Amino acid sequence: MMNNAMLSAAQSVIATTATAWGLSGRKWWPALFLVTLLAACSASLPPIDQAALPATPTAYKEGDGRWTVAPPAEAQARGEWWKSFGDPLLDDLVARANAANASIQVATARLKQARAFVRAAEAQRLPEIDASASADRGRGLVNGVPVQGTRSLFTAGADLSYEVDLFGRLAQGVDAAKLDAQSAESLLQSARLLVQADVAQTYLALRAIDDERALVRSTVVAYQETLALTERRYRAGDAAELDVARARTEVAATESEALALDRRRAELEHALAVLVGEPASNFTLAAGAWDTALPIIPAGVPSTVLTRRPDVSSAENSLLAAQTRVGVAKAAWFPTIALTANAGYASSDLHDLFQWSSRAWGLGLIGSLPVFDGGRRKAGIENASGEFDAAIARYREQVLVAFKDVEDQLSALRLLAEQAQAQDRAVSSAARSTALSEIRYRNGYVSQLELLDAQRSELRNRREALQVRSAQYQSTVALVRALGGTWN
Questions:
Q1: How many other CB atoms sit within 10 Å of the CB of residue 410?
Q2: What average pLDDT does the segment 161-184 reach?
Q3: How many whole angstroms separate alpha carbon 43 and alpha carbon 64?
Q4: How far apart are CA 362 and CA 328, in angstroms?
Q5: Whole-number Å distance between alpha carbons of 486 and 306
Q6: Cβ atoms within 10 Å, residue 407
Q7: Which DSSP category does 303 fall into?
Q8: 305 neighbors 96 (Cβ within 8 angstroms)
């Protein structure tokens, strides 16, 4: 329904224009009656079917039941969550990515565009003033005015036009543009969070590779020592040539695995270069110890953290914008009323153009009411309604994905913690087995094959322990991303 302020504005416009035209009240009251009648039929927005939206769970399945339901909080700060890892180099990489990453710059440009669209939509609600000047010379008809003989006509003035937004079409257009801008702002937040998470995960994966490379190369040294011992025993006649061949095979195979890790590390280093916005040829990250802290996200973090997820906020704003555009499409059926005015000077002599006697002015009220358009407006409403239905489905999917992402990482962290404990026990047993096998081999109680098996088992278990630890870091970063930022 149209509010009283809008109705009063319409009445004022019609009354003022009628007075300027010299019309009495009885001559213009039908127009006012028509406007008042149509004002009661302003476009209404379609309701959002709550049944089409996913129900909010009372607790996460992988939590401890202390997760709470709360209203959206997408405006809350995401925080510098990466600093909880206590790694100055990671802090520096994220800062460089925030400043130079291409994806963030693209999202920033999209937000700039969306805000410009808001200003353009708001400008349509303001009066438009244009200055004009013309010079015509003709015979019979000059600038629409009949003249005798050959005449010149010079004009200079200003034109004003203003559309009276009686039915809220322009206001709803502004509202939709603002919601689009809020969606673009959320997408920028999402791009930042995604880039920050990618930087952290890539950096932590690189540090895990560094530790694995050091482990494999130390194993190569151990295999080389075993090979040297086997060669001495072979020369002394205490070992067969087959034992020497087996030892050499293990040395070469492990060296190959070390080179494969070198290749993987180079790829991660190049990926980091792209994330921080630098050429891979100029980017180098020296190998270092993996002493990054592993933050523990408490299970009692409230769901207000999850509601800050920028992709969910963006989907919500897009839904509201689509809902508003249905109202804009419906408003196309209502008449448009524009107030026009012009004032200036007109003269057949250029020297007399700006004389007071050459002044000219006019007022106008233009109304347009759609009668037949071949179904174009109806198709516009159906198109807007279809986009609204699609926006509801996208929002529902985004919310479901958000809960799924959190559940995934909560379950991953719980299971990885148990797996890490089991893997630590396996490493301890494998290391003990290798030590005993080496002593027995040196004393001639077991074959070289059994020693190599023990060494391979220890290497495999140590590498798996490193991979489990790396997965814990990756899942922690993924949980931060799923929650939409810091949990403090």
A1: 20
A2: 75
A3: 48
A4: 32
A5: 10
A6: 16
A7: T
A8: no
What is the pLDDT confidence band of residue 89, given thresholds at 50, 70 and 90? Answer: very high
Instruction: Name which residue leads in pLDDT, 132 or 466.
Output: 466
Alpha carbon separation from 96 to 204, 297, 345 (Å, rounded): 16, 26, 61
Distance CA 156, CA 347 (A): 9
Please tell me the CATH superfamily of domain 49-125+165-335+370-483, with its number: Outer membrane efflux proteins (OEP) (1.20.1600.10)
Both structure tokens of 244:
């020497």
CA atoms within 13 A on the CB side of 419: 16
And the tokens for 21?
A: 């035209």
Cβ contacts of 123 within 8 Å, gap of 6 or more: none
The amino acid at residue 213 is R
How far apart (Å, rounded) are the C-alpha atoms in residues 406 and 478? 8
Q: Are 130 and 109 in contact (CB under 8 A)?
A: no
Full 3-state SS string of 176-194: HHHHHHHHHHHHHHHHHHH
Under DSSP, the state recorded for 371 is -
Terminal CA-to-CA distance of the chain, rounded, Å? 45
pLDDT confidence of residue 432:
94
Query: Can you read off the two tokens belonging to residue 60?
Result: 């996460």
Identify the residue whose tokens are 């880039």: 195
Inter-residue contact 147 to 98 (CB < 8 Å): no
Going from the C-alpha of 337 to that of each of 155, 285, 312, 340, 455, the distances in angstroms are: 27, 66, 39, 10, 88
Q: Could you tell me the two tokens for 48?
A: 């959002």
Question: pTM value?
Answer: 0.71
**Dihedral sign, Cα of residue 324, residue 330, residue 331, residue 332:** positive
Which string of b and e fits 353-389 if b means at least 16 CB within 10 Å? beeeebeeeeeebeeeeeeeeeeeeeebbeebbebbe
Residue that wins the pLDDT comparison between 445 and 260: 260
The whole-angstrom distance between residue 416's C-alpha and the CA centroid of its chain comes to 29
Instruction: Express each pLDDT in 376-417 by its tens digit.
Output: 778 888 888 888 888 888 888 888 888 888 888 888 888 999
Token couple for 217: 């190369």
Predicted confidence at residue 421, as pLDDT, reads 94
The span from the CA of 343 to the CA of 328, in Å, is 33
Angle at 291 between CA 285 and CA 294, to 5 degrees: 115
All structural domains of the chain with their residue ranges:
1-41, 49-125+165-335+370-483
Q: Is 278 exposed, middle or buried (0-12, 13-18, 19+ CB in 10 A)?
A: middle
Report CA 165 to chain centroid distance, whole Å: 34
d(CA 218, CA 261): 14
SS3 445: coil
* Amino acid type, 37: L
